[in-house]
Glutamate--cysteine ligase regulatory subunit (Acipenser ruthenus), 251 residues
Amino acid sequence: MEKQNSSAILLLKQATTLNIHTGNLVNWSRLKKKCPSSTSEEEAPSTVECTVTQATEAITPEEREELKVSVKLFLSGSDPSSIRTAVDLACSTLGLSQLDSVMIAPPPLPEGVSLTLEHLQPHWEELENLLQSHKIAAIGTSDLDKPLLEQLYKWAQVKPSSNQVNLASCCVMPPDLTAFAKEYDIQLLTHNDSKELLTETSFQESVSEGVKDAVVADWSLEWVLRYSIIVKSRGIIKSKGYLVQAKRIGS
């Protein structure tokens, strides 16, 4: 165990990118964490992949038509290129060429700053590019009120197909939002996610707990991606899980 911890510390010391995959949480009872267990300083990779054995199930071509793959992406930083990175990693992890839908939760803003169309535009343009290159079939938003959803709809080349509303902040769907969504065929969905699914502090603490004595202060959380795979004909969840990416600050 001590040797494995030393190897993990060396990996983190040399790496610039850390990818974590929970595997299929439906099979949580069978999960077994797997990170590279031994390495030398000469062969330490720049990207460390930490995943779960016996739970990562790629989708076969034969079953693809029967499944709907939905993603919600929680952004931590302002770099829109992280959206493409997340989508590419999700596709490669799940064995897909395209995701059925991707919904973004915009990155948290400083205290007292309200979300505006200007904040959303670079992220939405990246989603549009991914849709036009057939990496995504539909794109959506999260927690936009009626004025901001309307601004996005009028500005965007590819219109949002859905918008999630947190019912913890409003017990009833706002009537103006409902009317606008109905008029422009935008699906309104509900959720109970926190504004930040995983804070950078919580992420660093988790890594520190998993790898004793690791230096974690220079690791910055980039994004958290949650995916769900549903069997269309039966409406049951076949698989769900999380992908997380962090980068070393300054890399």
Q: What stands out?
A: Residues 1-127+198-248 form one domain.
